[in-house]
Predict the 3D structure of the following.
Amino acid sequence: MTINPEPITIAIDRGGTFTDILYRVGSIEESFKLLSVDPTNYKDANIEGIRRVLEIVHGISIPRGIPLDTSSISSIRLGTTVATNALLERKGAKIALVTTKGFKDLLHIGDQSRPELFALNIVKPGVLFEEVVEADERVTLPAFTVDPTGYDAQELIDDIRYVRGETNEVFEIIKPLDIEKLRTDLVQLKNKGIKSIAIVFIHGFNFQLHEKLAGELAKQVGFTNVSLSHEILPVIKAVPRGQSTTLDAYLTPIVKEYISAFLKGFKPGFEKYTRIEFMQSDGGLCSYTKFSGLKSLLSGPAGGIVGAAKTCYDSNRKFPIIGFDMGGTSTDVSRFAGDYEFSFESIIAGIKIAAPQLDINTVAAGGGSILTYQNGVFHVGPESAGAYPGPACYRKNGPLTITDANLFTGRLLPNYFPQVFGPDENQPIDMEITKQKFEELTKIINADNPKFPKTAYEIAEGFIDVANYQMAKPIRNLTESKGHDVSKHILSSFGGAGGQHACSLAKLLKINKVIIHKHSSILSAYGIYLAPNVVEIQEPVSETYSSYTRINLLKNCQRLQSICRKNLISQGVKQDSVVYNIYLNMGYKGSDTRIMVPQPNDDDFLSLFYSMHAKEFAFNDEDRPIIVSDIRVRASGDVSSYDKSIKSPYDEYDDIGKLAAKSSIIRETRNSVYVDGNHYQTDVFLLKKLPTGAIVEGPALIVDANQTIFITPSSVATILSNHIIIDLETTYKSTATTSFVDPVQLSIFANRFMSIAESMSRTLQKIAVSANIKERLDYSCALFDNEGNLAANAPNVPVHLGSMSTAIKYQLDFWGQDLKEGDILCTNSPSVGGTHLPDITIISPVFFEDKLQFVVASRAHHSEIGGSAPGSSSSYARDIYDEGVNIETWKIVSKGKFDYDGLKYHFVDNPKSHGVSGTRNIDDNISDLKAQIASNQRGINLLKELFEEYGSETVLFYMKKVKKAAALAVTKFFKDFANKNKDKLPLSAIDYMDDGSEIRVKVDINEHEGIATFDFTGTSLESYSNLNAPKSITLSAVIYVLRCLIDLDIPLNQGCLDPCKLIIPDNSLINPSKFAAVCAGNGMTSQRLTDVLFKVFGFTSASGGCMNGINFGTGGENEKGEMIKGFGYTETIGQGSCAGIIEKNGERYGFHGFSGTQTNMTNTRITDAEVLEKRYPCFLIEYCIRKDSGGKGKWNGGDGLIREIQFNSPVHVSLVTQRRVYKPWGIYGGEPGHVGENYLGRNRGNGVIQWIRLPSLAEIEIKSGDILKILTPGGGGFGNVNDTDEFWNISTDFKYDKTGNQHIIAGGSLGKHVEAANTSQ
């Protein structure tokens, strides 16, 4: 190309492996790729790309290393991984955190939940700061939102002690900021070499004065970067706001350093000619002068969504698209239906971030997903081979991966793949090593299945099928969780590996059309080129929505619009191009769920909120007030007047004349592809040679320099000027043999069964009304065979694992032939398989072909079911009827009719006949029961679809075999354990409840059969307390412990217990009579059961061993039987986790316990300090790690927590704790952890607090000013302090990555669902 007077525009997306360069001169548009890191040739890929563009356009040679003349370049737009890499590698700036006194450990504790339910070694990402300063300051709210009187404290305003915050709520300044002490502390930080700090005060988003004062002081002291939480993210919740603020402080200096170095690549004065802009995580550009760390993390992936939205969505036809971006190391999924979808809380590199970002969800490890075979089941991922060593075919001794499977089956062609491999980086991918490894794996698999051997091609394709099913599941979850039908979408595929899987994936999702842009391999760069400049501002408010408050809210939005407009104009945006989007963050009063509602044309935010809420959650409560928590303005505009509109590919598809592309002239070559069990001689086409209008019938391969697209049989691709549209046949019937167990189908059915259980789970969460189900996710859903054996369990709650099976079997036996289609059963009694009374189980039989084939069930915790105390969990309960509604057998629905008379009897009349209150909230009970029924119906519908797809014989065959796969894994564990410990068997252990009750267990294993006997003989009698644990809880504890010890992703079903024989004495603490109180057994005794089971196997020390439960509230029935309106609140506090030794990937390593976390049978989140104080009449004095409370050892137990709460008004407190008498034991010479301690501080007036020690279980009448202080137990130590690694045969080189993750965790809105599914009681 020769010199062209027209200006050059450049868009660059720098990825982990390649940097994509797109440039435009006039109407000419070209692109190329170069390595992101190539230090022997250039220092910076971005500068190198710009240099090459200038050489091409001007036809001259430009030496490397000299500043570039950018006078001919009008715009450079960049997406960068600088911040992401710094976070992943933990190479950000050296920073400090300045926070409120009493909260120095808040960001370490987080929400106290653990990321993986079954991981003994609890690994969380470390904090980003190196130092913490506790500022002596504190404010709180004197009013609380659940106050039945509606008191707002406005009359207290004196502008001295009582002041208004940004939301006009009243704040009490308990302690003004101590400026001089903070100055001294900041100077000390500065002297330690720290230049960047994050300032995060409790309630700082709303009462901003103290943060502003501290920020000014920090600048005076000389810090070069000061990140203030109210500026970074002015929203409630101290933890996500604090993590976002520290992240900004950690990354912004790195981003600024990079920009400074980048700009040195240009001649001085470049800004006169060239605008330099960076892509932000929210899908908009900003000037390099305004680019910051927090906004940069999803810079490249955000470009991909913009590219897909701009090139593949038709605003007239309005077909929603699913973006499917499959690369080598990750697979990202997004959705676009005319407006960008945002996530306001996400997880990136293990850090929770609360900021507007495009909703990008990482759902799999990409082409590098490692292939393994274990216990008769095919596994794809979650581990990835990464860029190094990469797949086996990369010639770096890597493992078999999905890329290898695609290569071996002919879906990838070595001659059309970049030849950058081998010692000299000039060889193609290696088919021979891939073939060798698949043949070796085939021998292993066939040795397990000698009667029905498979070929290596069948094995490879089987792994591809499993991978597609695994990717389909989260894509379906993402769309269904938002209330959308996935089959009504178009799949927009991009990324290097997307084209190999797009057709197969679309078929599984019943999507009948795939669209691929011709530049799909550089679509992120294309999106960056097309993106507008964007400025967003968000402000906190606290208003009950009404037509009156809407006027004021919109006035405030107009003020924010003006600020945004000035900001954009300062970046060179044309004023007439600016477009504004206004949002109100709305939700029901008393709920943590919020929806960002865009401004409708008629300004009727309320109707739109109801519509969006119903779509996502399937219900509305129009009698409940709607609270607006934030206002948000997003302004966007363009710098240039260039028309970036793109012709609809669907219009072109309809209008274009089509011609077959079967000619040998067009065909490049042919290649053998193994698909659907057959070898096909498949046509291979070069994309650049295919004319517009060409039709390519599958099977076929379409290739270009950067991608390979596999057109599956019966699919048809149409070539357009800029796109490929593929039409698929989705009305097909799947086939699977029942003459033998196909390990591929075994993996697929295991995924399908789990997917049904998880879909039931999402349905229940959506439709339920109570916060306990909707927000705390205290429920589980499961599938059972027609005998009541567990087939698949979505385990939100560990204590529900396997426990429902007992209840199902009892009900099937009780009802027998009286159970008909249209009947639904309800039970909660511990005597017939329940856990405790609040956990109500709804059971629906599944009839197909007039036979009972399956059972589906949901068990959910109802926060109120009557009894002697509000919340149905009195620590003084001594009889089952003290705890409320008790149902052994009941047809809640008979022949399709809901039994309202039975509801009144069971929930109101029967409890009163036993001298206690009936339910105090029957409306919520009815709503949640109906949500459980709907959840079960979802499971029935999906099972019937599965029957229709495969036939009942096949479904039932593989259901039994999936159960057998779980049994095989447990049997193998028992055999291996017995072989290594034959001289020690039988094993025995004992542990104690605080009242001295014993739990004893003896485990003996038949080494040859792999069957273990768990004998609990000697366990204490039923307790005269509420600590009794029904037998079903013991079953749950056994499954949980086995799943943790096996450490494989085995199916959670009845097979886990098949190799187990359990002896549980009647009338004992863990198998009590039907009359025993059991409420605390669910939470406390279950923890002791897991402790004693871990003790008998000897892999770990004890965890803290308690749920540390606090319930407080007001209201309930008075002496006259009148219902007094009040409120209730429950929390469980974390503790120290165990230490121990684990074998993983052939390595043996020891681990310390984690401090301040939930363990074993609980995984609840703690309510954020700011939300707690806003909602309830209390003040959190301190929440921190209880230093040195973990037991010392070769590996130390984790430390417990200190949580100190002062109450501002009278409440009743129920305290349910354990490990206050007997210490969490150490093992093999490790010291025990400290016991927990409970204290009541009585306010005696005049500032005098009298401290009183409390027992493990207590009912307390709290007065205003009283304090409750809980010190939770630490974990026990493992091994003697002086032991060596050699003594324990430890591999010291085994490491987790720096983010605390073993593999990719989903981000975006799906990440929230994944996390939530692991975090509930």
In short: The CA atoms of residues 327 and 352 lie 24 Å apart. The longest helix spans residues 922-950. The chain has a mean pLDDT of 88.
